[in-house]
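Entry:
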Amino acid sequence: MKADMASPVINQPGSLLTSRKWVVWVILVVLFGLGALIRFYDLTDAPLDFHPTRQLHSALIARGMAALASDLYPAQQAEIAIQQWKLEGLIEPPIMERLTAFTYLALGREVLWAARIYAILFWLLGGVGLYLLVKELKGIDAAIIALIFYLFLPYSALASRAFQPDLLLVCSIIWAWWAAVKWARYSSWKWTVVAGLLSGFAIFVKSTAVFFLFGAYIGLVLFGKGIRFTIKDKRAWLLVLLAVLPYAAFHIYGVYITGQLASQFSMRFFPQLWLQPAFYLQWIGQVNGTVGFPFFLAAILGIFLLPEKSHRAMLAGVLLGYFLYGMTFTHHITTHDYYHLPLVPLVAAGVGIALSTLARQLLGPKWLTRLILIAVLLGWIGVNAWDVRVTLKRNDYRPEAAIWKELGETLGQGTSVVGLLHDYGYRLEYWGWVTTSVWFTSGDLRYRELAGQTFDFDTLFIETTAGKQYFVVTLFGEYDSQPELKGKLEKGYPVYKQTGDYLIFDLMHPLKEQR
């Protein structure tokens, strides 16, 4: 326990990058400045660069909230916006959506890219927490390297601009880890409250945080304080209470009072995938596409290079939590790359620990080691920052908004529509102001079959199109892959309008043979 009580200092002996406090501050200012700069590039582009379905879900909620609380929109549009918000249901506490709606009200107009600013700020704030955490675990060198990985990993640079709660989730998890280390080190009431509140906020933001926090605390307790001592410690029970209460209250509200949250627990757990080798290969593919599988392996090495046993156990516990998380959300872990975002700070910490340790032990004289390490880090920053800039410059999604606005004007606001549409109709809803029902894609049908659901085409078509005025197709490749649907529409209903971007069938006037 004496080693655990030793507080790290900035002028640590053997530091490769710097031993001067002012140099550390300069490095941090430059890193955060450049990290912000690459994220603020092309700030006002439409949010179609990263999981647009998830981003537009939040955009519709924020707009509906603003419409309910103000007169920013004409009466008909305000009514549509509120209706679309209510149809979105409740997945997690709409924190970012509320912040964005308040920003609309403060500015007196809808500024969708304000949500992108909040996302970026949350990611940068998480970087501050990551630096403090890794400095506590290993020291300055490891903390700076971890921060560089976290800020300039191309995937995280693009993902951290998205209008979705996962950026706030990652930020809050990092700060909860940091507070947990402080709690384990000092065992004071102050750190108990801080750790409890930060852990409770992380779980409140998104309940999946529990996987990444539970393992961390288990590691700290089993290989630090000891389970017997912890069970008898009143402060530990206060920490648990503070961590559980916020989400427990939200869960009771969402499930038992409004009922909006109940449907969010369906079609999430598919244990039959555990026996399929393809599941694990797809999972590894997702890891490789987000943090890079070699870096993931290096991070595991870094975890076991930590000097303190309780710290090794803590990060190993987080890794175990990630594994249980993937085994629980078997479908999403292989299809939704943003489900791996909480892995980014863990891998960043592990890579920072591994690289700083190996550089100090394996390279030559200190001046040469420092030179090589700085060159490698600068190369990593330069290549990745340029790659992110090129990616953002290459893709301009602003013309997309005009297409969906035109389609909405063609259909008319308030029109009853069903369709095979991009992002489940969210683009048409947001820019076209047309509330839609969606026809399942082939992937949707396979997903529901995995959950044991079966469908009869004719029954599904009748139920889905009942009371609808138009069937709209914008996913032409998907349309061609469903010959039964294609034949039903083309033989049974006239084309209302067709362009290179969309195809509209008139459901109100079926052809004679369809009557």
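The longest strand covers residues 417-420.
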